[in-house]
# Entry
Amino acid sequence: MTSLAQRSQIVTLVDQAVVAGARQARACQTIYLSARTLQRWRLAPNQGDQRRARVQDPRNKLSELERQRVLAVANSKEFGHLAPSQIVPILADRGLYIACESTFYRVLKAENQLKHRGAQRPSQARTKPRALQARGPNQLFSWDITYLPTRIKGIYFYLYLFMDLFSRKIVGWQIYETESSELAAEVVRDICERENIAPHQVVLHSDNGSPMKGSTMLATLQALGVAPSYSRPAVSNDNPFSESLFKTLKYRPAYPRQAFEDLGAARAWVSEFECWYNHEHRHSAIRFVTPAQRHAGQDGALLAGRAEVYEAAKARNPERWSGAVRDWSRIAVVHLNPENPAKPCLRQSETVKQAA
# Structure
């Protein structure tokens, strides 16, 4: 309900808006007020709200004795560790009805007793990984392990795959017959040597698997000056780039329909995939240049050339364009797990215009 003073103030504000050139209907719509209500307030400015304040007391409300009985049962030695969803069926099996499940919850909430009741550890809210970003190659890497099928059912090869998030380039990979922290450490050492990674230059993001957090891997990262970053347990969205790369790999038309015969066959196929992905595949998230071109810093000139082609085409036939030409501006920043939840994870990129 609004007081007489509030009504008078609202009427004055609306009148001021109308004098300033606004339409009364639009002014009322902006403040979610009916024009009919405004008219009624003007006709009877000294008449307050005539509606009776309604205080409803449900007829089926629990009595104080019934509330105390619900609390006594919920906090008893037999049921004190169970949730109401467990208590109510047990009582029903005994031919007893004290209150429905929702009433149990409502009474417990009113008494500030609605909390975890079991002996097991309650579910924990996982802290989101810190936001990371890359403004150039060899700053932010991501890696993961995926299975490759063999001719023996239940036996797999393990593909260790590392990528640069800024360029999407596969910077290193290897296939082994087992998962281990020691093997992963070997691949990391090889990547840092080939890419000339200096200490404290790269952040390496991964999930929480044992090869990622093993003592040998952690010791190797510390010795190389590579900072580790980890996803939340069982949250694949925290490592979306590697997951997307695995999907691209396994849904390639050239992916073998039959399982790999041996380790050599698997390595040969992944080697061909790496060559295609890095040097031929035009990646949609980096303006359809190849990862190798972006990693080498060639994407800026390529995209500028495309922009010139489009501007020239528009100049020749301007009637075919109703607006601006296609955006070929270079993506300057790539984000991983940004703090702003409004931005989708795989589309976390800023163009040169936005970064300027």
About this structure: The radius of gyration is 32 Å. The chain has four domains: 4-43, 64-110, 132-284, 291-355.
